[in-house]
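call fold(seq) -> C-alpha cells
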Amino acid sequence: MSIFTPAPPPWPGRVLSLVRIVVAGVFITFGTMKLFGIPPLPPGVTIPLFSQAWIAGVLEVVGGALLVLGLLTRPTAFILSGEMAVAYWQGHAPQSPWPSVNGGTPAILYCFLFLYLAFSGGGPWSLDALIARRRGETAATS
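ret:
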C-alpha cells in the first residue's frame, strides 16, 4: 500500500464508523452537562428549562445517541452540524474572529465532522447499514 493511495477496503468504512461512534460519544457529554449536570456545569451556571441552551442539550443527547447507534445518521448529522454552526456564530464569533481566542474550535470541528457524516453516512458498523442490508439496498460500507 502506498501512502499516496487510499486505504483498501474494508478499512475506510471501519474507521468512519469508529470516528462516528467516538465523536458522538464525546458530543453527548455536552448535552448531559446541560440537562443533567453530568459532568458538572461551571459554578453559578444554570440552564433554564426550554431555553436555547436546554434545547441544544436535548439535541446533543438525542442526536449524539442516534449517531452512536448509526441510526438516521445523515439527517441527524445535518441537524447537529447546523446546531454547531449556530453555536459558533452566536456564542463564539462575536468575542473574536479567531477560534483559538474565542473558544470556538470545538464548535467548528463538530460542525464539519457532522457535515462530513451527513454526506458519508454512518459506515458499516451502523444501524443504517444493517437496515440497508436487510432491505436489499446497496450501502457504501467499505
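The chain has one domain: 11-134.
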